[in-house]
Amino acid sequence: MIHLFTTGGTIDKIYHDANSEFAVGESLLPELLSEANVTVPWRITELCRKDSLELTEADRADIRAAVAACPEERVIISHGTDTMAETAAALSDIGDKTIVLFGAMQPARMRRSDAVFNLGFAMAAATLLEPGIYIAMNGEVFEAGKVRKNLRAGRFERC
């Protein structure tokens, strides 16, 4: 069983035409997993609906507590890309689980989003990797503490 936690981020953003702004909406992960005919048992828990730049240390503590308390050994966290590395670091002392954070550079509701690929990749990573904390984005897996987001290039890279 894989436990997916949602925290918001770009992957779940919706566009409000009235004010030309994006906001974090309800997660599409259940729909995407169903459409992909994922047969690995999974469950989803929503922790928050925030842009990752709005996450506080208290939010990270709540994420950490939820992951540590869940009985599943394989965990996926959907997360905004801007502070994903910080949240991964906050999880670093959880040693008995395989934890994979992922997100998207474009909302899942947009036609040209990397969300569906990243979700599938995160599912595979969570199934195959040894216990540890990882970020899985755009076909690469990074160990927590050894990755950063390159804002200019719009991708993650080892550091």
UniProtKB/TrEMBL annotation:
Membrane-spanning intervals of the chain: 115-137
Pfam families listed in its UniProt record: Asparaginase
PROSITE patterns: ASN_GLN_ASE_3
Residue span(s) of domain L-asparaginase N-terminal: 2-150
Active site (catalytic residues): T10
Keyword match Transmembrane: yes
Molecular-function GO term, any one: asparaginase activity
Binding-site positions, substrate: S52, T81, D82
InterPro entries cross-referenced by the UniProt entry: Asp/glu_Ase-like_sf, Asparaginase/glutaminase-like, L-asparaginase_N, L-asparaginase_N_sf
UniProt KW keywords: Membrane, Transmembrane, Transmembrane helix
Acetylation keyword on record: no
PANTHER family reported in the protein's UniProt record: 60 KDA LYSOPHOSPHOLIPASE (PTHR11707:SF28), L-ASPARAGINASE (PTHR11707)
Protein name: L-asparaginase
Species of the source: Marinobacter segnicrescens
